[in-house]
Amino acid sequence: MQKRILECVPNFSEGRNMEIIKQITDCIEAVEGVQLLNVDPGAATNRTVVTFVGEPEQVVEAAFQAVKKAGEIIDMRHHHGTHPRMGATDVCPLVPVAGITLEEAAEMARALGKRIGEELGIPVYSYEAAAFRPERKNLAVCRSGEYEGLSKRLDTENGRPDFGPCQFTEDVARTGASAVGARDFLLAVNYNLNTTSTRRANAIAFDVREKGRPAREGNPIVGKIKKDENGNTIMIPGTLKGCKAIGWYIDEYGIAQVSMNITDIRTTPLHVAFEEVCRCAHNRGIRVTGTEVVGMMPKSALIDAAKYFLKKQNRSLGISESELIKIAVKSLGLDDLKPFNPQEKVIEYMIEDKTAKRLIDMTCKGFAEETASESPAPGGGSISAYMGALGASLGTMVANLSSHKAGWDERWEYFSNWAEQGQQIMSELLHLVDEDTAAFNKIMDVFAMPKGTDEEKAARSAALQEATLYATQVPLQTVKTVARVFPLVKAMAEEGNPNSVSDAGVGALAARSAVMGALLNVKINAGGLKDRAVAEQLVKEAEEIAAKAQAEETEILNIVNSKIQ
Fold it and tell me: Domain named Formiminotransferase N-terminal subdomain: which ranges (predicted)?
């Protein structure tokens, strides 16, 4: 199950007074489930860029609280700085990282803007993906005239905000206006070159950046720049959409780099940009030795890169996430200049709860000993989910061995697709290992609730039914998920590496045991439900899948035994 992660990168019009900045960031950190990743104040710009992430709903709430606090303690009537701005919270973009689309983030940004306008009385312009007007996708249009021009813009047709007051009141004079929107993740990367020439690095940057380079008459380097009939410079576009780039020399490393901002990683993924910079560098007699990521990056950028390079090698993509990350690091040369630690660079890893104790993080010995202890959890439900995960793992192993088998090169993609499916099933079942124990613990928590009054007894009874229903639904989900293992191991028994056919058979045995074990947990937990219609429906659904699983196991074992004999 992919975690939903939203990033927010608000810019506040204060970069010198750390006490004011801390009051704002304290509001952000006070929202449960939100993690503050970075605070970057600038004295000259008198502006602070803050980065925080978390579940979308919590991030939106933290953004609102930060905008509210900034509007209370920053007075725009006295603000001066080198950066364009129009409000205490100048911009507040929401950025989808995982499990959420840009369109969903845009809807959240509009809802946030509406709330800011109505509850805080701050004029709000919706921009980028959240814009209501095409021209307002451009932040510069929303911020035209900056704070100083706001009083004249608010009540005009083109300057009227999307939300909030249209008059330059005393309160608006203090808070200014805000731009609230949604945009794709901006990935900042530098490509290391085996040259010290800034001019050549710039030439490569001009080759690839979307803006390109000016068209010239005669000599492409020093020739007269061509103009159109309106006197505007005629540009020769670069090859990469959504990319800005320049070349520079870095004293610290003693090399030149192509420095790039990828503003649309959906259109131009990191690996696509890397390959194109390599191609253009090669055309100029230069080699890209590696890549440097500035700041943080979403995990998907590395996973997509790894799968791209594995596909080029005709290698299976169905390997573990940790192995995919290693492939990406080496393929992109992320460790060229210094060690690359995914735990410090990947957003999803940064916000993981490092203190949480998970069963799946235990050693095999530790898990067995924990199960054998006098503690009632983990129990049969978690064990069933784990057996199912092992069944999926065995099917995936056969798929990977088959994909790499000598003489089977033309079939690598077929087996790779099965291996990817197996990895996904395994991942879901490993999640259910801990989820089943968590469901049991929720029931135990109910027993600790007070029951001294009728109200407390009623609340306790309702909570127990809710927890029991969840404890029934989790093993049912295990049954449904394990059912997807059988097509995998059957395909591997029929078409996989014949030397591993017994492994496919064991996978079927493990999957069938997992289904039957999870079924028992559905039945025993459903027994505690007062709503008997719901209980019977849950049990019936699990029993139907279990009956099919037993038939599939028999079919697969017949295939396996026929091949062994």
Answer: 4-184
Helix (H, G, I), strand (E, B) or coil at 353: coil
Nearest to 332 by CA among 297, 357, 283, 369: 297
**DSSP β-ladder status, 255-262 and 243-250:** antiparallel
175: left (phi over 0), alpha (psi -120 to 50) or beta: alpha
What is the H or E stretch that residue 371 is in? Answer: helix 364-372
User: Do you find a cis peptide bond into 96, omega within 30 degrees of 0?
Assistant: no
**How many Å is the Cα radius of gyration of the chain?**
29
**What average pLDDT score do residues 478-502 get?**
97
Pairing of strands 187-193, 255-262: antiparallel
How many Cβ atoms sit within 10 Å of the Cβ of residue 327? Answer: 21
Which residues are marked as active site? 83, 436
Put simply, whether the predicted model's pTM sits higher than 0.85 gets the answer no
Specify the amino acid at residue 175.
Answer: T
CA dist., res. 445 & res. 429, Å (int): 24
Q: What per-residue string of b and e applies to 290-306 under the rule 16 or more CB within 10 Å gives b?
A: bbbbeebbbbbbbbbbb
Structure tokens that stand for 104 in this block: 């969903």
User: How far is 251 from 200, CA to CA, in rounded Å?
Assistant: 16
CA distance linking residue 210 with residue 236, whole number of Å = 9
What residues contact 297, with CB distance under 8 A and at least 6 apart?
185, 187, 270, 345, 346, 347
Q: What CA–CA distance (Å, rounded) separates 384 from 507?
A: 13
Q: Kindly report the number of other CB atoms within 10 A of residue 169's CB atom.
A: 14
Q: Is 180 helix (H, G, I), strand (E, B) or coil?
A: strand
Distances, alpha carbon 289 to alpha carbons 229, 273, 292, 335, in Å:
43, 14, 10, 10
Residues 240 and 189 sit within 8 Å (Cβ to Cβ): no
State the Cα–Cα distance between residues 472 and 436, nearest whole angstrom. Answer: 9
Q: Which two tokens stand for residue 464?
A: 């127990």
- DSSP alpha helix (H) spans, 161-221: 170-175, 198-208
Look at residue 217 and tell me whether its pLDDT is greater than 90.
no
Q: Contact at 8 Å (CB) between 204 and 197? A: no
Q: Tell me 116's DSSP state.
A: I
pLDDT in tens, 247-264: 999 898 999 999 999 988
* Mean pLDDT computed over every residue of the chain: 94
